[in-house]
Amino acid sequence: MAVGRHDRRIGHVHRHDLETALGTAPLYAACQGLFLGVVSAFFEKKYPGIVVQAVGLTFGTLFALLAAYRSGLIKATENFKLGVFAATGAIGIIYLVSMVLNSFGTEMPYIHKSGLIGIGFSAFVVVIAALNLVLDFDFIQQGCDTGAPKYMEWYAAFGLMVTLIWLYLEFLRLLSKLRSR
Fold first, then answer.
1. Which of the two ends of the chain, N or C, has the fewest CB atoms closer than 10 A to its terminal CB?
2. How far is it, in rounded angstroms, from Cα 40 to Cα 173?
3. Residue 113, helix vs strand vs coil
């Protein structure tokens, strides 16, 4: 739990003080690495082989969407950005409500179960997390095109790393639901 609180503080600094991203990004990466190692070990123990599958799906999605973005097949239009942002916000609200309900000893029905609704919800979240990669690619491309300051490279890398971690965790959730059916 202490790692999680420290991790959130570092992430907060990244969002609000872009120039400190250069110094704190490696620390954030180390904290995330520790967190992901613990989570991955838990899932691997319960579902052997799941981590390799989730990593493969995460990087496969990254490279497929990067190729689609670079080829112009997917464009980050303003409507696309708005839709992905709205869906991401809605997922964030659902997860926040779920955490609040959990703190009172109850849970949001269906979405955390391995039934069709839970699997469908997890698949939807995976798609939205993957589409956030397109937003990251667009942010990086805009930075290159406009000659953004050097420290923005670290900020862009931070954003891409956060999206990849979210996508990986959502793949773990989805695969674990599929395996527990």
1. N
2. 11
3. coil
What global pTM score does this model have? 0.84
Q: Which two tokens stand for residue 170?
A: 């959502």
For tokens 């990244």, name the residue.
Answer: 14
CA distances from 161 to 32, 87, 108, 166 (A): 10, 20, 28, 9
State the residue for tokens 């979405």.
111
> Half-sphere exposure of residue 87, counting CA atoms within 13 Å on the CB side?
17
Contact at 8 Å (CB) between 133 and 62? yes
Domain ranges (residues) in the chain: 52-179
Dmax over Cα atoms in the chain, in whole Å? 51
In order along its 181 residues, the chain shows pLDDT tens digits of 444 444 444 444 445 566 666 677 678 778 889 999 999 999 999 999 999 999 999 999 999 999 999 999 999 999 999 999 999 999 999 999 999 999 999 988 889 899 999 999 999 999 999 999 999 999 999 998 999 887 788 788 888 999 999 999 999 999 999 999 7
Q: How far apart are CA 132 and CA 125, in angstroms?
A: 11
